[in-house]
Design a protein that fits this description.
The chain has about 350 residues and is α/β, with parallel strands linked by helices. Helix content is about 30%, strand content about 20%. The protein is built from 8 helices and 16 strands. β7 (about 225-230) and β8 form a beta hairpin.
Length: about 350
């Protein structure tokens, strides 16, 4: 069998008998185009067509995924909000946001900035210390030396000079070094001073304001007289009675100056004090009240008195006042007005 070769177009030919050029070979494009039904112009067009720009006009296939991933719709567009479009690469993929690069000088300036902050901090602290020291030195200087002490008091038991002396504050002392609270406590140690307030008045004045207790009545005890105010604070103990109402017949547990009096029958003492105060408002000034287990005797004068039980006398003050007015018209200066349980008053010319 003759050696045959297979051509590229599906025909065989014997070895050494290859077709001549121009008869059947592929070197003739016109003959090949006619044989396979290829239009010559179309064939030429394929070679003249511009090559596609891959990565720009065509989308790169997503291998192993399938179809390209589509972005989810953004609802903000429906409301007219401005949405910043992400940056994309040449292939169309969204690019990750990149961090701004630090400049070369930032890393070098970091330690210098920390040192500057430390310097500023210590500088501020130093300035603050200097300011405090300056204020302190100014306050302790002679500019704030006390030159005047003013006193305001509700009573007349002390003079202004005496109150300033009792406070311990002296002229020439530094206004800021003087402890006003301690000076006020020194004043309040005196039983006649109920409240003391001391204040500074720049640049060189101290103002003292005190509220004094007043001597309101006496209690006769053990041959002496205890001086008290209406609240029952013991102010003093004297041998001779001043011109004040005196209560006799009250037993006391103890007498401490500056403290409240402690009677054995506290309720009785409070009622008698109230009787004296009520009588003074009604125009009946009882200058002495003698207390017994049965009744009391309240003296308007040394020779004219009111007698009865404490509650009866306290409740019949208005009727006693009427009787006293009639006795004054008749110029009767001696006798006793007796107050009964019903509030009726009788007069006896004899002193009881």
């Amino acid at each position: 069998m003759a050696d045959e070769r297979e051509t590229g177009i599906g025909e065989t030919y014997a070895a050494g008998s290859e077709p001549a050029t121009g008869e059947r070979g592929l070197d003739e494009p016109d003959d090949a185009a006619r044989r396979y039904g290829i239009d010559e112009e179309e064939h030429r067009y394929e070679f003249d067509e511009q090559e596609p720009q891959y990565g720009i006009d065509e989308q790169e296939p997503q291998y192993g995924i399938g179809e390209p991933e589509q972005e989810e719709p953004d609802d903000r567009r429906e409301f007219g909000e401005q949405v910043q479009e992400p940056q994309r690469s040449l292939s169309g993929r969204p690019m990750r946001p990149t961090r701004p690069r630090k400049q070369a000088g930032d890393a070098a300036q970091g330690p210098h900035r920390k040192r500057r902050k430390k310097k500023h901090f210590f500088l501020n602290v130093f300035i603050f210390i200097l300011a405090v020291a300056g204020v302190f030195l100014l306050a302790m200087s002679g500019l704030f030396a006390i030159k005047d002490i003013t006193v305001e008091s509700t009573g007349r038991h002390f003079t202004d000079y005496k109150i300033a002396e009792m406070s311990g504050i002296k002229k020439g002392d530094n206004l800021w070094r003087t402890k006003m609270g301690e000076a006020a406590k020194r004043l309040e140690k005196d039983p006649y001073i109920a409240v003391a307030q001391i204040s500074r008045e720049l640049p060189d004045t101290v103002a003292i304001s005190i509220k004094e207790r007043t001597e309101d009545y006496l209690i006769a005890a053990d041959g002496r007289f205890v001086v008290l105010d209406w609240s029952g604070i013991v102010l003093n103990t004297v041998d001779e009675a001043p011109d004040l109402p005196v209560i006799e017949g009250i037993d006391l547990k103890g007498i401490v100056t500056g403290s409240a009096v402690k009677p054995k029958r506290g309720i009785l003492l409070a009622d008698i004090v109230q009787l004296i105060r009520s009588g003074a408002k009604s125009g009946l000034n009882f200058h002495r009240v003698a207390v017994s287990d049965i009744d009391i005797v309240a003296y308007v004068t040394d020779t004219l008195s009111v007698k009865g039980k404490l509650d009866d006398v306290a409740g019949g003050l208005e009727k006693v006042k009427i009787v006293m007015s009639d006795l004054k018209k008749q110029k009767i200066k001696r006798g006793t007005i007796i107050v009964g349980s019903t509030g009726n008053c009788t007069f006896s010319p004899e002193q009881q």
